[in-house]
Amino acid sequence: MALRLDIEPERLCRFVELYTEFHRHPELSMEEHRTAALIESELRASGLETFRCGGTGVVGILRNGEGPVVAFRADIDGLPILERTGLAHASVDTATLADGTVVPTMHGCGHDAHIASALAAADLLATDLTAWTGTVVFVFQPGEENAAGSAAMIDDGLWRRAPRPDVVLGQHLGAYPAGTVQTRPGHVMSLADSWKVLVHGRGAHGSQPENAIDPIVTAAYMITRLQAVVSRHSSPLDPTVVTVGTFHAGLKENIIPDEAEFTLNVRTPNDKVRERVLGDLRRILAAEATAAGAKAPTITEISRFPRCFNDPATTALVGTALRSSLGADAVRVDRPLSMGSEDFGRLGDSIGVPSVFWWFGGIEASRFEMMAQPVPANHSPLFAPDPVPAITTGVQAAVAGILAFLGPATVAGQDDTDER
Length: 420
Ligand SMILES: [Zn+2]
Ligand SMILES: [Zn+2]
What we know:
Number of strands: 18
Number of domains: 2
CATH topology of the largest domain: Aminopeptidase
Bound molecules: zinc ion
CATH class of the largest domain: Alpha Beta
C-alpha cells in the first residue's frame, strides 16, 4: 500500500495564511523578489537547505538518507490582470513594466496555491523523516507565464547545484472540484510559439499608392493566408491553433505607413507538427512580402514553450499513488490534451529524466452546483480558488506523488502503521 501523510488542520492554517499573503502580493514573471525571499525563509524554517537559482528561483533540498531523488516543481509568478474577485485577500498591487507602463497584478493562475502547497508538502515531509528515504528537491520556478523561468534555472546550473533527480513532478491548480486530480500519459499540453512580425513597406501620401509599398495590405494578406495553415495544411487529427493577437500600423488615414506589426501565437500538439507549422508560417510570410515587392518581414521570437510530456510508465505509477491517496474516483488519468502551454517539461527533458504533470481541483465542489455560469477559470479577473480545499488537495497530491518514488524507511519497527 502506498505511503500517505495527511496535513493536520493547525499546520494547514499556516499555509493557508501564507497563500493569502502570496495572493495579496503577486509579482510578474522573473520579478518575483519578495515572493522568492518569503519562500526561502519558509523553506529554511522547515529545515531545508536552499539556494537561489535563475534570478528569482528558489531551490529547497530535503535529504533523508539513501534512495531516489525526486524533484517537485512549483511555479511562482503572477499576471498583469486587474483582480475583480472582491475577496478580502484580493490584490491591489501594481507593477511597472520595462517600458514604464504601470499594470495591475493578480495571482490569476493559482501559482500562489502552488507555492503554498509545495511549502506545506516540504514541511510535512521534513517533519516525518521516518516515513521515507531519499532526497526531495523542491524547485520554486519563476517566470512560467513567459516560458523564461525553467530555462533560466537550467542555465544557472540547477541540475549541477541540486542533486540530479530520477523524476521531475509538477502540478497545476484548475477550476475543477477540490479533492480531484486529472492527468494523462504522453503529451499533456500543447507546444507554443509566439512571434512578433514586422512588415516592411514604403510609406507615401495616401493619394499616391504608386509610390508606396503598403505594409497594411501586405500584412492583411499574410494574416488571411496564415489561416490556411490550420484549415488546409494540417491534419484535423493534429490539434493546431494560429492566432493573431495584435495588429498595429499607421497614424493617419491619408498616410501609407512604412511598417505594420502584428503578433502571432501558435499552438501545436508535438515537435513534428510544430516544425512543419512554423516552416509553413515562415514560407507564407516571406512569399507574401515578395508578392508585394517588399523585403522579407523581420520575425522576432517572443516566447517558446517546450513540450510537456508525461512519461507513460511513470505517469501510471503516479496515478496509482494519487488514487490511493485521494480515492479512485477522484483521480482521472485520461484527461484530454490541453491547448494551454507550460515550460515545466524543460526541467526533465534537459537532463533526459521522465516527468509527470497533473492538475488538481481548487474550487469547493458545491460551487459548481450553485453557479448558473461556468466557474471563472485561470487567467480570469474573477478566478477565485477556495484556499482551504485547494491547498488541502494540492498538498495531498504533491506528497502522494513524491512518496510514490521514495520507499518507506527500513528502520526497526517501521511498517504500514506509519500510514496515518
Ligand atoms: Zn497561467
Ligand atoms: Zn499557470
